[in-house]
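[step 3/7] fold_predict: job queued, chain A
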Amino acid sequence: MRPENQSSVSEFLLLGLPIGPGQHSMFFSLFLGMYLTTVLGNLLIILLIRLDSRLHTPMYFFLSHLAISDISLSSVTVPKMLVNMQTQQLSISYVGCISQVCFFIIFGSLDIFLLAVMAYDRYVAICHPLHYTTMMREGLCTLLVAGSWILCSTHALLHTLLLVRLSFCANITITHFFCDLTALLRLSCSDISLNMLVIFTEGVFIYLLSLGTILGSYIRIGTIILRVPSTKRLVKAFSTCGSHLLVVSLYYGTLAGVYLFSSSWDSKDIIASVMYTVATPMLNPFIYSLRNRDIKQAFEMCVNRLSSLRDNH
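[step 4/7] structure written:
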């Protein structure tokens, strides 16, 4: 069969999740509930940080941007998956697929960079508490977030431009529930050596930079704590870093499961992708709020304000 070039490929087919025909309604309800929880939970975090002046600190500034990124990451993939589940239409347009790849890379990378920035913030808070306000000044926080956005957008644009130059064969079936870069590269009839070279150089450098920042920050935190060990300092460090460490473990654990320890897409890889794109963004608001006294107090204050407004009317 003669290969077709990209100009003649108007759409791709997304096979979706490996579920039985009679289970679509159940999984549709499940993922719709998870998506709505993700959006509402992260919007609540953003709202509380905006309304409560006590949360106008670098840590919560970074957390609000992580919440925005989580909403965006889920919104790139989940709505299309839900539409395909409900309509049983597996197609996605060529432009839609390429756009999904681009935005998925942007927000997936942004999550990783924001987690690295938050790790550095925790390092400064624990290791240099007396200089925290001067080291983590507003201008630096804004620069770190803006730099993350610019770097991740450039990173995504590079891979997208390298992708659109490729030709695709007659096989347009993607064994996934969204357009993943590596899945699309497997369908290409063109030479993908340049794409793979960029992935294993620039791409790996990007992720190692963020992972190195996280590991370096926590190694320094551990060194400082163990130098003069005390129960009080250990409890304080765990209360400060526990939520962040749990989120980092979820992100990098699922990322490793998807992209490092798999040779081909199967059900285990798709489950790991669901964890990364759906479950983790949904869990983040719970992780950061259930163990966070400031968030709880801000929520209680917001509820009390609403109750008093309702009573006045």
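[step 5/7] annotate
The CA atoms of residues 37 and 282 lie 6 Å apart.
The longest helix spans residues 193-227.
exit 0
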